[in-house]
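Q: Joint fold for the lines below.
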Amino acid sequence: MKKNVLVIGAGGVGQVVVHKCAQNNELLGDIHIASRTVEKCQRIIASVHEKNALKTHGALQAHALDALDVAATVRLIKQTGAQIVINVGSSFLNMSVLSACIETGAAYIDTAIHEDPAKICETPPWYANYEWKRRAECERSGLTAILGAGFDPGVVNSYAKFACDSYFDRVQSIDIVDINAGRHGRYFATNFDPEINFREFTGQVWSWQNSKWTSNKMFEVSREWNLPVVGLQKAYLTGHDEVHSLSQLLGVPNVRFWMGFSDHYINVFTVLKSLGLLSEQPIRTAEGLQVVPLKVVKAVLPDPASLAPDYEGKTCIGTLVEGERAGKPHQAFVYNVADHKQAYQEVGSQGISYTAGVPAVAAALLIASGEWDVRRMANVEELPPQPFLRQLNRLGLPTRIVQNGLDSPVDPV
Amino acid sequence: MKKNVLVIGAGGVGQVVVHKCAQNNELLGDIHIASRTVEKCQRIIASVHEKNALKTHGALQAHALDALDVAATVRLIKQTGAQIVINVGSSFLNMSVLSACIETGAAYIDTAIHEDPAKICETPPWYANYEWKRRAECERSGLTAILGAGFDPGVVNSYAKFACDSYFDRVQSIDIVDINAGRHGRYFATNFDPEINFREFTGQVWSWQNSKWTSNKMFEVSREWNLPVVGLQKAYLTGHDEVHSLSQLLGVPNVRFWMGFSDHYINVFTVLKSLGLLSEQPIRTAEGLQVVPLKVVKAVLPDPASLAPDYEGKTCIGTLVEGERAGKPHQAFVYNVADHKQAYQEVGSQGISYTAGVPAVAAALLIASGEWDVRRMANVEELPPQPFLRQLNRLGLPTRIVQNGLDSPVDPV
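A: Joint structure:
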């Protein structure tokens, strides 16, 4: 039974995580939030109070922290008495925060893979480059470290595990589909940090096909999907974290990730990329100023958090599993539909942040209850899906399934 | 009879000007070239020697100069004994260089209107904002200052004057059409300094219609043109220098400028502009670095001079005059077709630089001969067109005319 949560990162996802922790503080204990910019933490705390979101009276405190500084993070964990750390800061911080957790014994949760700022799209499987190198270290110190516990990666991994176990004798393929059918009303914006967002699409696209790593270019392969609620949608084969764990952990010969993009998004992205404006390598202006083009693009784009008030429409994210059941071909699509406006009304963030943040709190609750306090490093598909899906149902991300032409809720017992 | 030329600016146009001056140095005397970066001048001089372009033995020298520094420019004019200054540097320099010319008595030639770096698209007529305020000063000191003596503005103004005088009793409209049907093989590039190039299209589009200034948005008004050699081309109503002098000096009720753009150019431009990346106002990155987005875009785009070796195809730039002759509607299209590859072979620059630079040298030759040494400030349409068109024929930019369905060369006597 662990308690007291330190949330690292005060962006849109941090906002969701803190709100959801507050709504469940009778189970989670004290809540602390830390960011380089303490004012961002204070704004989130103010919004929690504004919505009267704390379930019971309890600590809710802001801290200034550079989470690349392991010693400072260790001090803050000790000072706050946090036994669970939810890391939703920049992907560049993961390994530092993990080190601080190992040193203090606080359970670690993140929602996206570790990245080196200087590298894009490293050798697959990505988890083997940083995270899995530290599996033994976690095992030795009995540290619970849950990797990629957002929606995708995270919930979709659990969907895959749940469907494979429950409905299939043999699985041929896992396809994860992520469609944001929402509208923010701006000319162009990314739904989270543009620097991280664009990095996803500037390298090669790795997928796992016929039990081999296959490389494609971004926007090279697309497929039409007919999905619940959001309807017919075009999505593109995209490199994504969960392909790099599911392929290694579930023994399925085909694992692919598909993300929906509008023609407008692709056009803007293509122009920026073709001109070299998405480069993370510094260039020099005629006046001699050294600058990273991607950081300039980030500076002119809308702050993703600013999109929330006007965001409308729904997301549909799910896992399609195909294989055999009782000797016959079978398929199941396990999914969730989230609504941008509802998310904003509840926690002041748009739906993309909501779907990423809520599962991390579900994971924290399962560590607090002991169900997921596994005292080792684990990707989500290595953990029992039932308690996770139950928590998600309760926390506002209900699971549904389409199977044999029937669309029904999933309520695992 | 003036001689010895100082060329200010060592970009693509400077390269053309120096080559053409060298080819005519028996008439122009010593040739000097100055730029902030003296190495650029030296490279141009090397290319003149490489092509053996000096007509006769004579001085050809490079100088480092910040032409915003009037005193330094005065010193260089005196030191070189230049009696003609051809200013093909940045548009931000014009008024400083003009001051140095007034102080020394050296004749002044430029090819584009003066611009204030902090302002875009000022009140029409643009010439009244800076240049024409100094008409009296030039008159008093007997200074020859020829404004806008490139191709457009410049040659097209002379085409207008020539056609109005030679073929019309009454003129209703002057439409200048600028089509570059060339291909440089890059994803995207501007044909001259991107900072100046984009500034042309980010403000409102001023045209002179029914004897009034009319404002449109860029890419709002387009028209299909069927032109000699380059064929059917779509061009857009665009703000441009010559509209601001022809409208005031020739008494014609409609003066418009049309520039051809590919759909691809418009798309890239629209994306960059919509995102705020063409702004000349500084922004601040998340890391606190202050930077002007337009300067970053300039830094990632190809150097316009680097396009020359691969540039293929032709430009067609001309003036369509419509009105009455002997009581009947009449129209005349006076134009030139230039070839990118030929320009590169002759002077090492692409066709856009060639068409801009050659007319300035024609103007210099007419000042040297006395024909245009008018000892006052003048736009090109205020000067006799015949000697100019004769020089242009001789220098590689022959004039043709389409009239009464007949396409024929113009060789004014």
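Q: Anything notable?
A: Chain B touches chain A through 27 residues (CB under 8 Å). Chain B is about 35% helix and 25% strand.
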